[in-house]
Amino acid sequence: MAGTVIGEGLSIEGDVSSEEEVVVQGNLRGKLTTTDAVSVGSSAVIEADVSAQSLTIAGQVTGDVTAAERVDLQAGGRLIGDVKASRLTIADGASFKGNVDMDV
Amino acid sequence: MNGSVIGRGTVVRGNVRGSGSLEILGRVEGDVSVSGELLLGEESAVKGSVSGSHITVSGAVQGDVRGSEAVLLERGARVVGDLTAPRIGVATGALVKGLVRTDGEPVLGTPRRPATAGARPVAFPARAPAPVPAPAPKPSEPSETVEEPESEPPPLPQEKAAREAPPPPVVPALAKGAKAKKKKRED
Amino acid sequence: MMRHSSEGSVLGPSTRVTGRISGEGALRVEGGLKGDISVSGPAEIAEGASVEGSVHAESLEVAGSLLGDAVTRGPIAVRAGAVVRGDLRGSEISIEPGSRVSVRLDTQVELDLGAPRRR
């Protein structure tokens, strides 16, 4: 299922809550919550707290992120904010500033 | 652009805007404005104004819908709000409560409304105290019914209208007494 | 002028009428009318025809021009090329793209904007 795609060029200011996969390539400012996966594309700029089942970041995220499973910060990705997840990977070439809580 | 989709299981509380096209299958509580095509799917619901180039509505909208090219309401669409676009289609089985106006046509019953405004007559300059010359059709006055334009000086050049019918009489705004009377019917 | 038949009345293309038209059965306007229409059957404003006045009929189809309100028990159809200004009230209202309209529709609309809908 395609789920939700916030494409490049699209901006949302406000809260997004979902029960499906959310792919962000555009801008989001506010809050993002889903029970499924979130994928932050390389062109995405997010200023929001993000809560998801799992989270992949290739773009820019400013805000605290919480994942039930894992957070993957990919090369080129940038995260400023605290991470709460049982697993976290930070790829070579990614930048990250914040605290990590892997308390399980 | 790669089209954006707000999926069925997604709720957005806030404004959505941008370039390119957008398909809404879920819910949005806020204004939606895109430069490209906008598709509001069967089970979609938008509470806010909606604008785009070519807008197709199959879901529910509570707010004005403004298309820079076209607005098409499919069967099953439900809109409470005004529709404006150069081309408007309302399919049988689509429900609308509001004003439906193709560009270039005079605005019904909203005097002194700026010609370009796509918004509802709510936020209005104080200049005219929005005397909504309510529809309240009184079928008993045959000569009156034709004169509806009286309270609405045609806001636009009547380029094409002149061909089909005499342009509505150009009458200055309402007389003082009339205004008071009409005000009562404001809603 | 008015041709009567079992199916209804027709106001021919070269006919101009000022006044009220009422009666049983259907009415098709092909010419010009300044005044109200009240018929028990379906009304039609043909392409090239114009009506300035209100319409009460069983149903209404507009391909010409209507400046005035329309109230019908059945459907109202605005065809491409038509010009309509006024309030429209009918069981169902359809507007074809390519028409020029400035109309007020007052349909009862149930909006379920609450919880997401599920099939």
In short:
Chain B is mainly beta and 187 residues long. Chain B folds into two domains: 4-102, no CATH class; 125-187, no CATH class. In chain B, 9% of the residues lie in helices and 35% in strands.
Task: Walk me through the structure.
The complex is a heterotrimer of chains A (104), B (187) and C (119). The radius of gyration of chain A is 12 Å and the shape is globular. Chain A is built from no helices and 13 strands. Chain A is 0% helix and 63% strand. Chain B has two domains: 4-102, no CATH class; 125-187, no CATH class. In chain B, strands 2-4-7-9-11-14-12-10-8-5 form a ten-stranded parallel beta barrel. Residues 111-187 of chain B have low confidence and may be disordered. Chain C has 119 residues and is mainly β. Chain C has one domain (2-104). Chain C contains no helices and 17 strands. Chain C has strands at residues 2-4, 8-11, 16-18, 21-23, 26-29, 32-34, 37-39, 43-45, 50-52, 55-57, 60-62, 65-67, 70-72, 76-78, 83-89, 93-95, 100-106. In chain C, the strands form two sheets. In chain C, strands 3, 4, 6, 7, 9, 10, 12, 13, 15 and 17 form a ten-stranded parallel beta sheet that branches. In chain C, strand 1 (2-4) and strand 2 (8-11) form a beta hairpin. Chains in contact: A-B, B-C. Strand 2 of chain A pairs antiparallel with strand 2 of chain B, so a sheet runs across the interface.
